[in-house]
């Protein structure tokens, strides 16, 4: 009976660094795109163009070539499916290390409305400068899981209670935001080469919770005979939180963007940008119920602090204007997502795991392309835009294969380290996203313009509206 509950609820380690492996963080992916509906409609490929106010974040060197003092505001609507691919189901073994994943997925849709960008750029001097506000990250979601069971393998004789292995039912939520304010300057070093820098103060808000629930064993394992004394002991606590993780962060930090823009002629330009992202501190708290002796007494509350690292990035792009009304832009970005898993420590791993599994994320390369065509023979010129970009999967994943984790590892005494299986099977869920973008812009006289954009992917949709006033 005592061993049964060791399998039931993973013990709660005390440490937590960088991103963490609480269920609420599973499939957590940030999307850093250049601001403005115009850039979004062209796939976000703007480093090599950088010819409007949004250059403040895309490539601040572009400010040096602006000729009109400009004010811009943007409104954005984001729709996410928030798909949870392991909501419920069963995993069975078909070979030595071969498994059949009979998982049920479920969507927990979310909708986020924001004002992601406001900026003013002043061009009435040799040194062009600007100020801005941006919401560079906004991630909200609430979801639950109903538990995934793993029927016995290695035979009943190896460990009688091996059938009681499962992913716990859970309740989870995350609210994460990074808001920035800052200033930018752009200077022409020569007639063809410009340089710019943006310095920002970033406010980080992070709140999250994962609660692993005491299960109803009779419902979870209907085909197995369970000691009635065990079921009677569990019954009053079914559905209560057995292990709880809370995270809460409110911190600020400085960051900087640096850019270069080379414009050999009016038809062609090439740009380079480096974005240094900040690190933030946040607090965590763990609590739960004691299960190893069936007492269900509260465990001591443990508190600590940790670091959440946003990834730096390097980008290069170019724009080509073969005619006065047609424009093509291309961009490549290297995003250092591995910084998000530095010093990673797990809540739910096996403390005696000899393989030392960690959850990590690799650096990725993102490709973006866009185009713009202007219909000038209209009372109000209309710009038509379209683009594409590849968003590689960049959430944390286990270093070990899913099948290795399912097969479990043994501790130094030779016993199965079954709590190691509480690592989520993140490799199975890794999927790159293709984004198709499109939009339009219209000018109303010399001073006012609006831009619209849409970004459509398999699991998300976003829409933006920008208003521009030129003094």
From TrEMBL:
One of its GO terms (molecular function) is long-chain fatty acid transporting porin activity. It comes from the Bacteria. It is found in: Cell outer membrane. Its main location: membrane. It holds the Pfam family Toluene_X. It is a multi-pass membrane protein. Residues 1-18 form the signal peptide. Keywords: Cell outer membrane, Membrane, Signal, Transmembrane, Transmembrane beta strand. GO terms for cellular component: cell outer membrane. Belongs to the OmpP1/FadL family. This is Outer membrane protein transport protein.
